[in-house]
Each structure stands twice: as structure tokens, then as C-alpha cells.
Amino acid sequence: MSDNVHDIIDVHPTLLLVDDDELYCRILGNAMKKRGFTVLTAHNVADALDMVGEIPPKYAVVDLNMPGESGLVLIEKIHKLDPEAHMVVLTGYASVATAVEAIKLGATHYLAKPADADEVLKALGKTDGQVDIEVKQQPLSPKRLEWEHIQKVLTENDGNISETARQLGMHRRTLQRKLQKRPVQE
User: Fold this and answer.
1) Edge-to-edge order in the sheet of strand 109-112
2) Do residue 114 and residue 28 come from a single domain?
3) Is pLDDT of 66 > 90?
4) Which of 3, 134, 138, 159 has the most beta carbons within 10 angstroms of its beta carbon?
5) DSSP string covering 113-159, please?
């Protein structure tokens, strides 16, 4: 019998799905159930932490940007409970800074939205890096560089928008508008 009460003899491993987009959660959750997972769903970090308690799921897909605490808080908590848990950060606001921070805190992979169930399943199975991944030869555009820099400073300030705006020398509302826009794709 499994030590993890969420797992049903590991035939249907538990997947914790945390995203504030309820429709996306429902669609991805149904797709992952069809792929053999027992899916637990939460729409913010606080509810997910209540659901997890002291028994972490074997797998987790966590949105980064939600009302309340960042998904990084949940990644860190699950990793402390079970360093072997496979966690994927899924976000519409991908940046190098947040990807690095997520991996440092225990995530095993990082995907930008929109990601389908097959991409999520593949990411959940990853345990090592990929040496044959394509490396882009083009430098980043100035807009993308600005986005990456903002994300780096925001991460260094633990998500504090006011302090980040002060350090960047811009008005807080201007920074909030920039953060609401999707990053420029290269």
C-alpha cells in the first residue's frame, strides 16, 4: 500500500492542478484524468496548501501568477515535503528570472501558456535537462530584454511592485500596465 493517501496504489497517481483560470483547470483536469491521473484542483495557493496538508501529491502543475500568493510559494512547500515530487510551473508570463527561481525552489520543468495536456504530461515526466534542445542564435529584442529585466528585478523584490517600480525609476501604475501585457515572443 502506498504511503501517500492521495495515490491509489500508484495506478492513478495524484496530480495537483492549481490555476486561477477555472475553465482552463477544468479542461486540463479532464484531459489529465483521461491520461490516468487522480486530479485535485485548486484556484489559489491558500486552497492548494489546505488541500495538500502534510501529504504532497506526486505531481503538480502550478500557475505562477494568481491572486494572493505566487505559485512559487506552493512549489517551495511541496518540494520541502517531497523533494521527489514532479512539478511543472505553467504561466502566461514566462521569463528567464521566474523560470530560474521556479527551478531553484523545486520545480522540475517550466511551460509557457497555452500548453496542452500532452505538453504537460511530457514536462511532468522530465527529470533531467535536455542537451539537444535548440539554442536560438538571434539576440533578444529590446522589448523582450525590457520584459526580462523587469521580471528579474520583480523576483529580486519578492513580487513587490512598488519597490520594483522605485528601483526601475518608473511609476508604479506604469509598471503594473507593463506586467499585465503578455511578454513579446521571439
Assistant:
1) 38-42, 14-18, 59-63, 86-91, 109-112
2) yes
3) no
4) 159
5) SS--HHHHHHHHH--S--TTPPPP-SPPPHHHHHHHHHHHHHHHTTT
Any domain includes 118: yes
Q: 49 and 97 in one domain?
A: yes
Q: How many residues does the chain have?
A: 186
In the chain, the number of structural domains is 2
Helix or strand run (H / E) with residue 14: strand 14-18
Domain that holds residue 160: 142-180
User: According to DSSP H, which parts of 59-116 are helical?
Assistant: 71-81, 96-105
142-182 pLDDT per residue, tens? 777 787 778 778 877 887 889 999 999 999 899 888 877 76
> pTM of this prediction?
0.67
Give the sign of the dihedral formed by CA 120, CA 124, CA 126, CA 131: positive
Lookup result for grid cell 512539478: 87
Contact assessment for residue 158 and residue 97, using Cβ atoms and an 8 Å cutoff: no
Distance of alpha carbon 153 from alpha carbon 93, whole angstroms: 15
